[in-house]
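pasting LacI family DNA-binding transcriptional regulator for the record, 337 residues
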Amino acid sequence: MIVTIRDVAKRAGVSIATVSRVLNKSKPVSDELKKRIMDAVEETGYLPNAVARSMIQKRTGLFGVIIPEIFNPYFSGLVEGIESVSKEFQYHLMLSVSEKDPEREKELLQIYRSRQMEGIILAAARLEEDQKEILARLGIPCVVIGQRVKGLKAPSVVINNWKAAFEATDYLIQLGHRRIGMIGGPFWDVASGQERYQGFRDALASRALPCREEWVSEGEGFLVEDGYKGMEILHSAPELPTAVFCACDRIAVGAIRYLEGQGLQVPEDVSVIGFDDEELASIIHPRLTTIRHSPFEMGRRAATLLTEMLHGNQSLQTAETLEHSLIVRESTIPLSS
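structre below
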């Protein structure tokens, strides 16, 4: 049997309006009366109607979060960071996975609007013009993770992918490597694809080194298998690079696995460097030199910006760039003469 607010009022010996005042915290009541009503709620097992309460209070207490994929540890760290802030401010998360499909992202944004999300956090691999238009029309505070958004009144939280890739590549050059390749993610991915590739190219150009087409592989994704296939392509070139920069750690792991299968040693034959410093980077053999940044901090900062917007700070319209660092481990060594 469904328990109603009428049952609670009857149990507590008060009016329905008094129960509503206590549950919605709309008007103060005595401690004795509040306790009597809350005891009745517990005894009857009454569950308040969340939709009705949100209409009365004019708030749902919900953040809508959209991430590209669920199996990537990077995004689980991101969500943990968002959750750490949402709990503090008593918000709850509605999480959806877009599978990197712009049409799905647009659909989810409309669903979140209809479900009356108070704010939205969007982690997108790319933002097309029609997506920006939808975001602009939503009328809901929004923070974008991973992309600098031009022409949209929404703050974003990013890392400097170009600079990080430049530093990773330049480190290989400092070790004496001159034949340097890259296994990237898909270049349609603006941040993790294009920006990291451009940083790689610019680092080579700054040292007057060539970016040889046969030493660059664009992957379909950011998986171990993409790294394996990419290293296979680089290995088919007439001359093998002595070092390879990979767009993420899982790509680097795939590259190492391929090299091992060919009887080549990392780092003795080929130095390999990754990006993200996922947990696997420190447990693979050899342990992976990589770029470290914090998805937890990125999620935490995005949620903080969103709560600031919801509490009246409407001037947050710029990209906030978080720190990164190069972590040197055993997968890279100086080029032997």
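The CA atoms of residues 8 and 41 lie 6 Å apart.
The chain has twelve helices and twelve strands.
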